[in-house]
């Protein structure tokens, strides 16, 4: 009995150590504001929490990029320029070219193209081009395009300040992977877990393998549609998921600042 007890204690301690080690490296820079534009204060709420990643759905209508969940939600004053580009330009001007006052704290802006990809992406590039000095690879704001993205064979024809949201199941060439700024996948591809209790071991292994494989390629990982609670955040942190997906901006911000280290 003593042997079994010692074995299970060792396993429990190992899990606690792994979780603690993973949690230490996390801050609000690893938080992703899912559908950020649906918040009462788009951009500002997540920025005040110093989130490292934000997400906006965009539609191209009459040469203007609007931020909305569906076409019927479009409002004249809710453009990509007014809700995101202008605030970003204001912050970088205030912070001497950096998005955040601190050195080496970048911001990822995930832009989900909801209308036809080629024309929508062309419109996005047109309004970003004059401000490319603040954009990665040289600036502190990384633009990652998702949704109606071009075929990977076309990645190289776009400016170097445009990165693409990749998928773990895709096989990219070395030239193509250089244009991939992030790897994302739906949580439901791996599990039906509701965030209560422990994640099933078989599901944990699937997610862990994907994360490890993408890290071996030098890419950060986001898993979307995860359960949105502390237990799930802890689990994703222990698995090494780079961006914690949330609709609870303030709650996750408070947790990451105050969680035991």
Give the topology string: H per helix, E per strand.
Answer: HEHEEHEHEEHEHEHEH
CATH topology: TIM Barrel
Class from helix and strand fractions: alpha/beta
Low-confidence stretches: 1-23
Q: State the end-to-end CA separation.
A: 33 Å
Molecular structure report:
It contains eight helices and nine strands. The protein has 261 residues and is of the alpha/beta class. It has one domain: Phosphatidylinositol (PI) phosphodiesterase (TIM Barrel), CATH 3.20.20. Strands 1, 2, 3, 4, 5, 6, 7, 8 and 9 form a nine-stranded mixed sheet that branches. Helix 6 links the parallel strand 7 and strand 8 (221-224). Mean pLDDT is 92; it is low at 1-23.
Topology:
Elements lengths: L1 H23 L6 E3 L10 H5 L4 E9 L2 E4 L12 H15 L12 E7 L3 H12 L12 E7 L14 E5 L7 H4 L2 E7 L14 H16 L4 E4 L5 H10 L4 E3 L2 H10 L3
Parallel strand pairs: 1-2, 1-9, 2-4, 4-5, 5-6, 6-7, 7-8
Antiparallel strand pairs: 2-3
